[in-house]
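Re: the request from the purification team.
They wanted to know what the chain is likely to look like in 3D before they choose a buffer screen. I agreed to run a prediction and write the result into the notebook, where they can find it.
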Amino acid sequence: MNRILKTICIVMLLGGPAVAEAKSRYSRRSSKSSKPPVDVCKGAIDPYRPGVQKSRFFRAAGADNELSASEFAADRTRPNGFARKFDSWRTLLAFDRDGNKSIDWLEADAYRYYLRKKAMASYDANSDGKLTGAERTRANTDLARGRIATPPKSARAPKPPTPRSSSGSHNGGGSAELSALKAKLAAIRKRIYDSPALAGLRKDAEAAERAYENAKKAPSIAQARKPYDAARKALEKAVGKLPETREYEKAKQAYYAAYRKTPEYKAYYAARKKIEKTSKTSAAYQSARAEYEQAKDRYESVKKSVPEYQAYRAAHDAMERAGESIGEFKDAEDAKTAYYQVYESHMAIQRKNKDDAKNSLEAKLEQLVMSDPTARDAYRRIKQIEAKSR
């Protein structure tokens, strides 16, 4: 469903950042899918399984075991990645204790516990500490759409921590030491990762990755995709003719015109133009980048507050409902289901081989890192600092 409706929105909703938001939300609706609902809660929310999440995190984070924004974005495209639809890099970054703009496992684990507490406050109606029946159905529906409902006022929902800077001003300068310790660990990991001791495992992991990517080009997969692509194009055409789509286009243009008049958008646009004209190798680039990020945050925080936003969202939701009620939608869903049955059956072995090879490499890397006395001392000190900052 994601790929079907993403394509629709690309065709119909050319424009600014709000287009991407509408495209994303439209793609999450799949109430008529012939597959049984996926238990999105399992592993990440209820029950929360740290061991599974830790393995996925290190796979996403790469050799330095620190998850960056680009690695987070890349991991969201993987079928069994750490980053899920309901995860937000901005919220995850609030758990960055040392302010280095990347996330280690301890920070990611704290983030997962935060999401679990928030979800339980929102969906655990009988307060029994688990999600069952209608509670779990509602939670899975929302999480599959990429959101967690706001807990009722009567429930005590946790708040994410205030994002930290790397100045070392809090915790008695502990953040500066923490950042230095993590840099030391990263250097140790890189040295060991590039060492002859891991050469064989690296070679196996790279070969398994290449085999996995090559398997996607199999003739059986290409043949199965043809009816899926045809059904998707038919759905695009049918949705484009709906009265609700025309109303949505009008509301979208009104919304764009409104938020582009705000001073926050004008400042953001000016900062974006400035950074585009600034060489990345120049001394002024970092300052321009910081100005751009601040302007973007201010713009993102106010663009939904313009009066036209509510009409825009209502028109968007009406278009979604109308699109899901037409026959072309069901045809596209059926075609997608048939295609992915072929795709998954063909890719299952290659995916397992790839994951097994990468997990073996990561497990050996972690074993060698922990055998280094300097790394063990750094880990021990990091835990002490983390415990004090809680």
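For the purification team: Residues 327-370 form the longest helix (44 residues).
Please add any questions underneath this entry.
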